[in-house]
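User: I've been trying to design a sequence by hand for this structure and keep getting stuck. Would you show me what you'd pick, starting by listing the structure so we're on the same page?

Assistant: Good idea, let's start from the same input. This is the structure you sent:
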């Protein structure tokens, strides 16, 4: 009997090297960087057609819970479970709690651990490799997928193949950190080194056994976090105190580099971790001059560049090997050779207490989104979209008043004891301190303009009384 495959999708990455597109509240796994689908959606879709595959278990930060749910709903993919981490603790604990959720899945259960933000061009070949890996993993091995290297990359870790095993697998001789250029060239020439993909297949029981052997404190904290978890709508919230106390480490360091059961299956699947703008340029289809252009872009005398325009027209003249990324509130210009240093910009913004690394002008909420249009001294203007049937929390503000103008759709408004409808081209006013709620009772999205005025306009000036999404 073929093993049952339980995909576990890890959504906890920050993607800081892909700023200004990737941000704290909307990191790269939730962005359509390569296709019209987001990276998370592509990760789930490429599993369709996989033999004996179960619904995915998704492990994500609590802040992103509704993003995950909405993006899976858009592709008609219902997760087996969505586990919410109160804090990030790297991949080993994230996989541990997923394994604990699968302890009763049976002896033929195999976890397929996938980051949500990788690019794989040959999905059919990848599915075939997964099915081979599942058979090997069902035999007690801890399997990783090694990528056949295309060039001497210095941005990836490497795996040295050891003795051959059945099923096209090999023992792992050793893991190697990211090498310098000369070492990477030597690895490519020798032909027995593979890129470390960070994708794995193993049974939940075997992973927990190896974690108990090599990182017992981590497993103890994860067991406590899982035992203290609670259901919240369609989510499972880990116990915050227990998981926060868990040591942070990757699967590689905590288990794979220490176990004697590490096994690698070489694959050639058109893989990229999309870790920087330079790697995204490498993976993308290019024009005759080696350029990748996204959005309203004009190029002249330009070669080997990645240019992306999200909000405005961007013209590039006379550049080579450059990266230009425009959003409505930030612009990045760098060379491909310096693309890894984009994370330094994020560090600068954080140290300066700015917000351009935290969120875009459009901020997604479980009920829809809002986007900033204008702001100044004691005022702020936003555009809101409320999904059909959705409702904001019943709330009040200590420091600001709000004026709502309905652009399209119809709004159901609660203001104090009054409940009434506001139609298209109509408006209403919410005074400071008034208890209020905005709902969309219709079957089409509700769009409105919100004008805030007052002495303090921060998003933390919200007192919630009722909330269907159980936010604090």
């Amino acid at each position: 009997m073929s093993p049952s495959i339980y995909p576990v999708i890890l959504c906890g990455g920050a993607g800081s090297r892909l700023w200004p597109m990737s941000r704290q509240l909307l990191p790269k796994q939730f962005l359509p960087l390569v296709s019209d689908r987001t990276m998370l959606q592509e990760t789930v879709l490429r599993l369709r057609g996989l033999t004996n595959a179960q619904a995915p278990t998704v492990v994500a930060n609590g802040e992103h819970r509704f993003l995950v749910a909405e993006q899976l709903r858009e592709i008609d993919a219902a997760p087996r479970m969505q586990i919410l981490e109160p804090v990030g603790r790297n991949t080993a604990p994230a996989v541990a709690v997923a394994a604990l959720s699968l302890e009763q899945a049976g002896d033929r259960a195999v976890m397929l651990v996938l980051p949500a933000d990788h690019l794989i061009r040959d999905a059919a070949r990848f599915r075939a490799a997964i099915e081979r890996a599942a058979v090997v993993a069902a035999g007690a091995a801890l399997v990783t997928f090694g990528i056949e290297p295309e060039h001497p990359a210095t941005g990836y870790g490497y795996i040295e193949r050891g003795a051959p095993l059945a099923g096209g697998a090999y023992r792992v001789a050793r893991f190697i950190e990211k090498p310098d250029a000369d070492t990477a060239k030597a690895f490519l020439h020798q032909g027995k080194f593979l890129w470390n993909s960070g994708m794995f297949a193993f049974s939940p029981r075997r992973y927990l056994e190896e974690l108990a052997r090599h990182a017992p404190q981590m497993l103890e904290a994860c067991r406590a976090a899982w035992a203290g978890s609670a259901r919240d709508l369609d989510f499972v919230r880990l116990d915050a105190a227990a998981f926060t106390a868990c040591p942070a480490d990757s699967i590689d360091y905590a288990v794979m580099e220490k176990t004697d059961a590490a096994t690698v299956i070489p694959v050639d699947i058109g893989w990229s971790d999309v870790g920087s703008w330079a790697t995204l340029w490498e993976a993308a289809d290019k024009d005759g001059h080696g350029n990748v252009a996204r959005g309203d872009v004009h190029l002249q005398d330009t070669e080997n560049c990645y240019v992306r325009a999200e909000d405005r027209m961007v013209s590039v003249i006379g550049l080579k090997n450059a990266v230009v990324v425009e959003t409505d509130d930030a612009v990045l210009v760098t060379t491909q050779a310096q693309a890894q240093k984009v994370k330094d910009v994020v560090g600068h913004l954080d140290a300066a207490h700015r917000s351009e690394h935290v969120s875009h002008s459009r901020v997604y909420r479980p009920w829809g989104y809002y986007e900033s249009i204008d702001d100044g001294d004691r005022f702020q203007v936003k555009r809101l979209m409320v999904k059909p049937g959705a409702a904001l929390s019943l709330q009040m503000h200590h420091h600001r008043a709000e004026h709502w103008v309905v652009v399209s759709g119809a709004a159901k408004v609660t203001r104090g004891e009054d409940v009434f409808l506001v139609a298209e081209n109509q408006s209403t006013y919410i005074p400071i301190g008034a208890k209020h709620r905005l709902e969309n009772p219709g079957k089409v999205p509700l769009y409105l303009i919100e004008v805030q005025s007052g002495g303090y306009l921060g998003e933390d000036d919200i007192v919630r009384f009722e909330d269907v999404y159980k936010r604090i």
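That's my pick for every position. To get oriented when you compare it with your attempt: The longest strand covers residues 193-202. The radius of gyration is 24 Å.
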